[in-house]
Design a protein that fits this description.
alpha+beta; Fructose-1,6-Bisphosphatase, Chain A, domain 1; 2 domains; eight-stranded mixed beta sheet; 9 helices; 24% strand; disordered C terminus; magnesium
């Protein structure tokens, strides 16, 4: 068989997430492999949730639980399914000493006090959309603990601030499942190949366009938005920008990351300090967007990653996306909103 025939018959399938992580680990002479294993644990849980999402209509895991989480939101069955899967994967991986989940009010200790990392996560964002087959996602944020190894993790390990994240990312369950993350050296994306059971590198250097033509927000709150936000949105409409809003944070963010645009969740009278959770929604997305060349702010003077957290389930407004669009909002004074 000639080389040409061999190349035609057996095209390379690409770099797996496992191999990519191992190669990147080799670039850091003092790496111990713990963070690499932690990322693999998250990817494993993501594969399991992918399976559950894709068979949701065939099994009894859609609909509500009849209970509420710490946020006062109705829990979906798939919320708890994802929560259990990710917590179990992180416990079994033995790299994490504690977990903060949207679904639990208190810190979850993993019974591994020698672990060097803590993880804050939203196991399944947008899960109310699963019943109508809309894209949903998982968000995660990783910190190196600040409490002594061998002791119980505390709130201090999670309240370090967004600039102290060592890695962050999301898993999108849509027409394809993607694992997107950063360790502070750019943003990479992997697409799940179900027949092989592997994530393959599909987007080696994700950069958000400097300018976009998409604005994403819930215009149902139009009359409750600050006047400055309505003015900005009117300018977008005059330019015939596209309004695109799914109501699933990861999906809305993912579209704008690739196509260019701005996602906004301003404060309202019902949620004067914003609705999105700082530690496991806004921090990871802000780290990703900055690494991809974009911006994330809560006001004209404060970036998301500069907020000093005081509560585990703290909320915040969010304006995130293409830098030129965010800067237009900031420069005109239209992002000077309620204090966080």
């Amino acid at each position: 068989m000639s080389i040409t025939q061999e190349n035609t018959l057996a095209q390379p399938v690409g770099i797996t997430l496992e191999r990519y992580i191992m190669r990147k680990q080799a670039e850091f002479p003092y790496a111990t492999g713990e963070l690499s294993q932690l990322l693999r644990d998250l990817a494993l849980a993501g594969k399991i949730v992918h399976r559950e999402v894709n068979r949701a209509g065939l099994s009894d895991i859609t609909g509500g639980m009849g209970t509420q989480n710490v946020q006062g939101e109705n829990q979906q069955k798939l919320d708890m399914e994802a929560h259990i899967r990710f917590v179990r994967a992180l416990k079994n991986g033995r790299e994490t000493c504690a977990i903060l989940s949207e679904e639990e009010a208190e810190i979850i200790h993993t019974d591994n006090d020698s672990g060097n990392y803590v993880v804050a996560m939203d196991p399944l964002d947008g899960s109310s959309n699963i019943d109508v087959n809309v894209s949903i996602g998982t968000l995660f944020s990783i910190y190196r603990r600040v409490t002594p190894v061998g002791t119980k993790a505390s709130e201090a390990d999670f309240l370090q601030g967004g600039r102290q994240q060592v890695a962050a990312g999301y898993i999108l369950y849509g027409s394809s499942t993607m694992f997107v993350y950063t360790t502070g050296h750019g943003v990479v994306g992997f697409t799940y190949e179900q027949s092989l059971g592997e994530f393959f590198l599909s987007h080696p250097n994700i950069q958000i366009p400097k300018q976009g033509k998409i604005f994403s927000c819930n215009e149902g709150y139009w009359f409750d938005y600050p006047e400055s936000v309505r003015t900005f949105l009117m300018n977008c409409k005059r330019r015939e920008y596209s309004g695109r809003y799914i109501g699933s944070l990861v999906a809305d963010y993912h579209r704008n990351l690739f196509n260019g645009g701005i996602y906004m969740y301003p404060p309202t009278s019902k949620n004067p300090n914003g609705k999105l959770r700082l530690l496991y929604e806004c921090y990871p997305l802000a780290m990703l967007i900055e690494q991809a060349g974009g911006q994330a702010v809560v006001s004209a003077t404060e970036a998301v990653l500069d907020i000093v957290p005081t509560e585990l389930h703290q909320r915040t407004p969010l304006f995130i996306g293409s830098p030129d669009m965010v800067q237009e909002l900031v420069a005109s004074g239209q992002a000077v909103l309620a204090a966080v």
